[in-house]
Amino acid sequence: MKIQEIRELIRLVDQSSIDEFVYEQGETKVHMKKGTAAVAVASAAAAQTAVAPPALRRT
After folding, report:
1. Do the beta carbons of residue 6 and residue 32 sit within 8 Å?
2. pTM of the predicted model, to two decimals?
3. What is the DSSP track for 35-53?
4. Residue 32, pLDDT score
5. CA dihedral sign, ordered 27, 32, 33, 37
6. Which residues contact 33 (CB under 8 A, 6 or more apart)?
7. Where are the domains of the chain?
8. How close are the terminal C-alpha atoms of the chain, in Å?
9. Partners of 32 in the beta sheet?
10. DSSP annotation of 16
11. What stretch of H or E contains 24?
12. How far is 44 from 9, CA to CA, in rounded Å?
């Protein structure tokens, strides 16, 4: 599916009264859903802390 076709589908769904649209053909799948806010979730990499190895005791 070409990007222009996807843009046209987005425009048509946006201007219609439908809330959800799913298109599948072969390995291509397009799923659009209106009425939900897009939320970007990005997880920051956890800060790495150095942990000293345990001390060895000689007995």
Report:
1. no
2. 0.50
3. SS------PPPPPP---PP
4. 85
5. positive
6. 19, 20, 21
7. 3-33
8. 72
9. 21
10. S
11. strand 20-25
12. 34
The neighbouring-strand residues paired with 22 are 31
Query: For tokens 């990499």, what's the residue?
Result: 45
Tokens standing for residue 32: 């659009």
Count of all residues that appear for the chain in the document: 59
The first and second tokens of residue 51, run together, are 């942990």
Q: Sorting pLDDT into bands at 50, 70 and 90, what band is 5?
A: confident
Helix, coil or strand: residue 17: coil
Could you tell me the two tokens for 13? 């769904």
Enter the tokens of residue 29.
């799948």
Tokens of 36: 């939900």
Given a cut of 60, whether residue 46 has pLDDT beyond it is no
Contact indicator for 34, 17 with CB cutoff of 8 Å: no
- 21 pLDDT band, cuts 50/70/90, is confident
pLDDT at 57: 65
